Amino acid sequence: MPTISAGRMSRTFLRWARGRRLINEVRVHRRRAPEPILTLSEDARWQLLDQCLRDDDIPDDVRAAGALVLLYGLHLSRIVELTHGHRHRRRSAAGEDTVGGVSVTLSGPEIAVPPSLAAILTRLPVSSSFPRTRPLISGDTLGWLFPGSAATGHLNAATMSND
């Protein structure tokens, strides 16, 4: 006998109840799948970070995402949602741009990034011939730093994690 998940059983029941007008419209939002938990030694983490910041053979979007994960522990599902509005030029007290000064804001305070990562972030979104980073229709109004293949969508975290 096949196993049926609790989510599928709930969905089936809600459709049944709605079809018989026992309940009003109900929206159930799916939980995001948890990202895998990987444990790295401190040395391995620093080696990977160094590779993300210095290896020009790795695409810039993969380097930026990897560095943000390794430096700040940000979830990949949040990183792929970054837009131009989340990336800020840092200014000195006199109001001048600081050299290599870039910060990123997600839902909390601004996170200052090191100059090597700032250089990579300022090159995003990547304009290359690699198909996963090129929108099918140009004119992305949201300004994703990690654009997906849909005209108005960002790259899927699962797709990024496979790179």
What would you note in describing this structure?
The protein is α+β, with helices and mostly antiparallel strands and 163 residues long. The chain folds into two domains: 1-30, no CATH class; 42-162, no CATH class. 36% of the residues lie in helices and 10% in strands. The chain has helices spanning 6-19, 42-54, 60-72, 76-79, 115-122, 157-162; strands spanning 87-91, 97-104, 111-113. The chain has a three-stranded antiparallel sheet. Strand 1 and strand 2 (97-104) form a beta hairpin. Helix 2 runs antiparallel to helix 3 (60-72). The longest helix has 14 residues, at 6-19. The protein is elongated, with a radius of gyration of 20 Å. The relative contact order is 0.13. The mean pLDDT is 80.
Secondary-structure element string: HHHHEEEHH
Radius of gyration: 20 Å
Record the strand order, biggest sheet: 1-2-3
Helix/strand class: alpha+beta
Instruction: State the helix count.
Output: 6
The residue-averaged pLDDT reads 80
Bulk shape: elongated
**How many angstroms does the end-to-end distance come to?**
37 Å
Largest sheet: 3 strands, antiparallel
Low-confidence stretches are: none
- Strand element count: 3
Percentage of helical residues? Answer: 25-40%
Strand content: 5-15%
